[in-house]
Amino acid sequence: MVAASIITIGDELLIGQVIDTNSAWMATKLNEIGVWVKRRVAVGDNREDIIKTLDEESRNADIILITGGLGPTADDITKPLLAEYFGGKLVINEQALENVKAIFARLNRPMIERNFKQAEVPENCQVIQNKRGTAPGMWFEKNGKVYVSMPGVPHEMKGMMEDDVLARLPLIFKMQSIISRTLLTAGIGEAFLAEHIKDFENDLPSFIKLAYLPNYGMVRLRLTATGSNKSSVESDLDHHFRLLKKLVSEFLVTDDDLTMPVVTGRLLKQLHKTVATAESCTGGYIAHLLTSEAGASAYYSGSVVSYSNQVKQEVLHVSNDILTAHGAVSEQTVVAMAKGALQVLKTDYAIAVSGIMGPDGGTPEKPVGLVWIAVANNQLVESRKFNFRFDRRRNIELTASNALNLLRLFIIKQEQVAALAN
Amino acid sequence: MVAASIITIGDELLIGQVIDTNSAWMATKLNEIGVWVKRRVAVGDNREDIIKTLDEESRNADIILITGGLGPTADDITKPLLAEYFGGKLVINEQALENVKAIFARLNRPMIERNFKQAEVPENCQVIQNKRGTAPGMWFEKNGKVYVSMPGVPHEMKGMMEDDVLARLPLIFKMQSIISRTLLTAGIGEAFLAEHIKDFENDLPSFIKLAYLPNYGMVRLRLTATGSNKSSVESDLDHHFRLLKKLVSEFLVTDDDLTMPVVTGRLLKQLHKTVATAESCTGGYIAHLLTSEAGASAYYSGSVVSYSNQVKQEVLHVSNDILTAHGAVSEQTVVAMAKGALQVLKTDYAIAVSGIMGPDGGTPEKPVGLVWIAVANNQLVESRKFNFRFDRRRNIELTASNALNLLRLFIIKQEQVAALAN
Q1: How far is residue A163 CA from its own chain's centroid?
Q2: Distance (Å) from the C-alpha of residue A393 to the closest C-alpha of chain B?
Q3: What confidence tens digit (pLDDT) does each residue in A318-330 have?
């Protein structure tokens, strides 16, 4: 199988100031064209470490993709090193220079020496022009291996991969097919799920692998098949995926590689229904998730983030009596918030949440992690209590994904009721 | 200098389904105790690859931290492999078993065979008990090197690091001091900033390194100093950090390692002022950023996410005339939204945003990336137009960080005006 290593260069990755999101994206795209990512290595801006890593990964992989270390500032040492490593010197690339000049002209900014240097490349590379920034990419070939160096800025790297690298690699290497199918479950733990599908897993042929990907109280299951004959790999995979779907049908959210907000948004869109959120403890995060996908305006019209009791009362019309008698984190309050959201924002469905996300603000009766969630339409309100026990960030994320799942189940039930009534 | 390698194990990291956030956190914490992270390597659930990586990183580093591969499901091969690598067999650890049992009792769930296996550890390790989950951590020592294996679940790994590993490592290795100072700038590009502080950078002593960390149109600058005498390292670093702050004073947002939402939130809190947001295109993301920090209720009371024109009119009282004459993405609309937010949510300050985040919805007059932002208090409204040119996600993030920066500058100016008037 054609194997790749991804090398990321930059001290910022080793001092923890930047989270590497590039590698995951690159791995997904490489898998799609049949390249298996065998290793990912991050090294600092250190000459000796970079050379050693290039040597090592040349032994590990056929394709070595390098990101980072190409910015205009002085802490970058990668380009001269690559020129030397592949035995050449740095020269100005005219097309890259035109590109830098055009970008500066468009921004109406003067160019300085450093900016001109962005157009320098090792003479022994094929240049990959950068349509989204100033640093060109570089393609090297040596001893049957391919090395591609790209900027670390995510959208610049992604542009080069999509415009050039992903199309050019299959011209050089004969690829196997790597195909995956993913489904999302909710409401069952990882170990129980594993027990539930133990026999299925044991019976899988060796060219199909099962992975468990737990996240925010939900578990994704992924089947990955590898082989040289694409259509036969695909049909075997689909057969086993159908078996798996049947086994987990009770917990199945989607048989596609989609997130909970996307599944919920698509369900609403397909039914021509709208949703609003009335958020206290999640502070707008559910609204953000619902609007992260393009086209959200088809099913989403707005939200009220009612962090204070005043906003709960004045904008969502939660009565002072309810807040005084039961408190902001209570079943009565989220029910009133959901009803208020339906009325004020005029949608078919509403989600309301109120809770204590921590680290402070808990009491013995209402500890950190206590959350009330309500989902409603004009006929019915359903509410449910949760007790999360993590840090603030994770509590917010768990509240949001559980609220969306409650809404999803509520919609399905309500639409079935509506269909029966007609 | 004491060097560490971080190894992450799991196919999910190589097929791109999971983004590795653990390594960045670990690197930050290791730096704080004087350990330099030399390399980070991700490998799949493959016996041969894991063993080879352990061998390699043993040569690269003194401390090898391993995460992942310890879950209860069958795709995990790490624990038996570690037992073998360090020359022993798996045995049940009684304390870990008690922990697993206690967790299942609390969740009111029956235990199955797989769950019992979670309490197995190699007999030749020191067990690190897991207070947040079922999989115990393992500490090995061999040929003067330390190896620690921890679960990949972020809060479980973080708990073990903070409760145990970070305190124990300095008892074994004599650490150098690694100290950093970070500041955040806004309103100047990376290359110009580099030109602006070129002489400063050239004059830095060899034990102090400068890093540029650009993010969402802002650049963080980080000075990192290393040495054996902590107080002299610190005083030299502080001297150079003061020089740097003076050089970039015009663009300085904060001289601490803080994000824009945190800086803005703290400014509001310190002045006892409150803010509301009226968000169209950011869909609640600014509200989410403002409420991500604990204690946000001191300065944040609520938001209206007005994705549809109907919500802009009915909840924020933007007039139909304005929307008809100028459209939802216009200076007039964001100004009216900001005024509406002040009135409806009764805060001292308001942010309003409206724009086209893409990929669809652009027109020749109003292309994708066009954003209007307004900031206001009861005396004044300021508005500004932006043209971003990235993907949806990045456009949302850029809009949010620029809106918060505009608010920050507006508050500083308004408070100065108010102080002069008194």
Answers
A1: 21
A2: 7
A3: 999 999 999 999 9
| Nearest residue of A to residue B76, measured between CA atoms | A211
For residue A341, with 0-12 CB atoms within 10 Å meaning exposed, 13-18 middle and 19 or more buried, which class applies? Answer: buried
Residue in B closest to A296 by C-alpha: B307
B215-252 pLDDT per residue, tens = 777 888 999 898 989 899 999 999 999 999 999 999 99
| For residues B111-134, average pLDDT | 89
Band (B96; pLDDT cuts 50, 70, 90): very high
A276 and A341 Cβ atoms separated by less than 8 Å? yes
Interchain pair B41, A37: CB under 8 A: no
- The residues, any chain, with a CB within 8 Å of residue A24's CB and separated by 6 or more, are B13, B16, B17, B18, B19, B20
3-class DSSP state of B285 = helix
∠ CA B103-B72-B11 to the nearest 5 degrees?
A: 135
Instruction: Collect all residues of chain A within an 8 Å Cβ-Cβ radius of residue B358.
Output: 294
Q: Count of A–B CB contacts within 8 Å? A: 307
DSSP state for residue B277 in the 8-state scheme: E
Mutate: best of A73, A195, A356, A394, partner B, most B CBs <10 A: A73
Q: Tell me, what's the pLDDT at B325? A: 97
Instruction: Output DSSP code: residue B165.
Output: I
| Rg of the Cα atoms in chain A | 26
> How many CB atoms are closer than 10 A to CB A203?
9
Nearest to A211 among B12, B72, B279 (CB): B12
Nearest chain B CA: its distance from A97 CA (Å): 16
Q: Is B112 helix (H, G, I), strand (E, B) or coil?
A: coil
Instruction: ipTM value, please give it.
Output: 0.83
pLDDT given for residue B73 in this prediction: 65
- The pLDDT of residue B16 is 78
Which residues in chain A have their CB less than 8 angstroms from residue B285's CB?
284, 288, 291
List the one residue out of A385, A381, A383, A374 whose CA is nearest residue A414: A381
Task: Please state, in angstroms and rounded to a whole number, the distance separating the CA atoms of residues B40 and A16.
Answer: 11
Q: Give pLDDT tens digits for A2-52.
A: 999 999 998 878 887 778 889 999 998 998 898 999 999 999 988 999 999
Q: Which of B24, B75, B284 sits opposite A305 (nearest CB)?
A: B284
Q: Reply yes or no on whether the pLDDT at A217 is more than 80.
A: no
Chain B's closest residue to A192, CA to CA, is: B112
Q: Is the pLDDT of residue A76 over 80?
A: no
* Structure token digits, residue A30: 């490489």
User: Where residue A75 falls among pLDDT bands split at 50, 70, 90?
Assistant: low
A12-47 burial, b for 16+ CB within 10 Å, e for fewer? bbbbbbbebebbbbbbebbbebbbbbbbbbbbbbee
Q: Which residues of A fall within a CB distance of 8 Å from B396?
A: 292
Amino acid B42: pLDDT: 95
Distance between CA A132 and CA B308 in Å, rounded? 32
Phi and psi (nearest 5°) for B366? -125, 85
What pLDDT is stored for residue B389 in this prediction?
Answer: 78
Distance in Å, alpha carbon of A350 to nearest chain B alpha carbon: 14
Average model confidence (pLDDT) across chain A: 92
Question: What's the token pair of residue A15?
Answer: 């001092």
Give the tens place of pLDDT for each residue, A89-133: 999 999 999 999 988 887 777 888 778 888 999 999 999 999 888
- Cα of B420 to nearest chain A Cα, Å: 32
